[in-house]
Design brief:
This protein is 38% helix and 21% strand. By secondary structure, the chain is an alpha/beta fold. The chain folds into 2 domains: 172 residues, 2-Layer Sandwich (Nucleotidyltransferase, domain 5); 171 residues, Nucleotidyltransferase, domain 5 (2-Layer Sandwich). Helix 4 packs across helix 12.
Length: 368
């Protein structure tokens, strides 16, 4: 695609330094407009890649392909590297820059991760264990690489130039094949003691509940991920309930996806509407716990589930009001992401700037 201009953060500067939202991490680090970073968002369903100018304003070469995790990590990483190289080529053609203008690759991947070693420790939805993703991508692309959790990246992206812009304490929730989360506390991206902070999808909401892909029982992800939404819809149909869901997939209920459920709910289908409402209740239960623990000013929810609109958000907010302390609820905005399809790559770019800025700029990012 042709270059796309993205909204800047507040108090934009024309001085060649990064916009204010990102400068909370990179104050004093010079940003050259003609430099680019490639962001990669590795999901359980799709890989999304694009190049962004280092000031966070322009986007080039946005591309998406199926992950096909069943092919194994080597094949997936090879596909990611090819997409990065193709995006570099497109960006060079569109902008006239040389390959030397590309500073590196930021990668968002499912976790838990070991960021120091660049490893995907375990990714249940990919079937990966101890995969050296960062170094393999650097090797195959010839560019320095940085790695962070995909949900951290999506949260980071929404905080930089999206729906959570201006927030000080932010919880990000990404809902796709699984459920991920990111935490920005007191203006800093929080990783915890061993890089597993923010695994919101694996908060237990029913100790004897559904089995999750992680091996535990009753995880939020087992109830409210895109995969779980489709599964619960199929279960409802097994009771012979009338629904347009069957017609939408030609009678083959195995083809029902979360997107099918959202579309049916938007048309007033009773089964789909109830699935969406239950999803909101499950999410509300999990997020109310986080409100009481972290007292955020913004919760931003990203992913395909936001297509359900107020059919999801109205009961979600109601459930949170019922379960969380009123001062915590009153202080918090609960909003859909405004960077559909690109929050992860935007945040991956920001992650690269943060991690690589730390070694070259004295006042570079404070990442805990």
């Amino acid at each position: 695609m042709v270059g796309t201009h993205l909204d800047r953060g507040p108090n934009d500067e024309a001085s060649g330094h990064i916009v204010a939202g990102m400068s909370r991490y990179l104050v004093g680090m010079p940003i050259v407009e003609s430099e680019f970073i490639v962001g990669v968002d590795l999901g359980g369903t799709n890989i999304v890649v694009c190049a962004m100018s280092a000031d966070g304003v322009r986007q080039h070469g946005l591309a998406s392909e199926p992950t096909r995790a069943q092919d194994g990590p080597d094949a997936v990483i090879g596909r990611m590297a090819r997409m990065v190289n193709e995006t570099v080529t497109v960006t060079m053609r569109e902008t006239g820059v040389s390959r030397a203008a590309f500073r590196g690759v930021g990668i968002g991947a499912p976790g838990p991760l070991d960021r120091e070693k660049g490893l995907v420790v375990i990714a249940p939805n990919l079937g990966w264990r101890m995969v050296p993703l960062r170094d393999r991508m650097a090797e195959l692309t010839g560019l320095p690489a940085a790695l962070d959790n995909d949900a951290n990246c999506a949260t980071y992206g929404e905080w930089w130039i999206g729906a959570a812009k201006g927030g000080r304490n932010v919880i990000g929730v990404t809902i796709g094949t699984g459920i991920g989360g990111g935490l920005i506390l007191d203006g800093k991206l929080y990783h915890g003691s061993s890089d597993v902070a923010g695994e919101i999808g694996h908060v237990t909401i029913d100790q004897t509940g559904r089995r999750c892909g992680c091996g535990n029982y009753g995880c939020l992800e087992a109830y409210a991920s895109g995969t779980a939404i489709a599964e619960r819809a199929r279960e409802a149909l097994s009771y012979e309930q009338e629904s347009i869901l069957r017609d939408m997939v030609g009678g083959d209920v195995a083809k029902i996806t979360a997107a099918t459920v959202y579309e049916a709910a938007s048309q007033g289908d009773a089964v789909a509407t109830e699935v969406v409402r239950d999803t909101a209740r499950f999410l509300g239960t999990g997020l109310a716990n986080l409100l009481n623990i972290f007292n955020p000013d913004v919760i931003v929810i990203a992913g395909g589930v936001t297509r359900a609109g107020e059919a999801l958000f109205a009961p979600l907010r109601a459930e949170i009001r019922k379960r969380a302390f009123k001062p915590a609820v009153d202080a918090c905005r609960i909003v859909p992401g405004t960077l559909p399809g690109t929050a992860g790559v935007v945040g991956a770019v920001a992650t690269f700037l943060a991690q690589h800025g730390a070694s070259s700029a004295p006042s570079a990012p404070r990442v805990s």
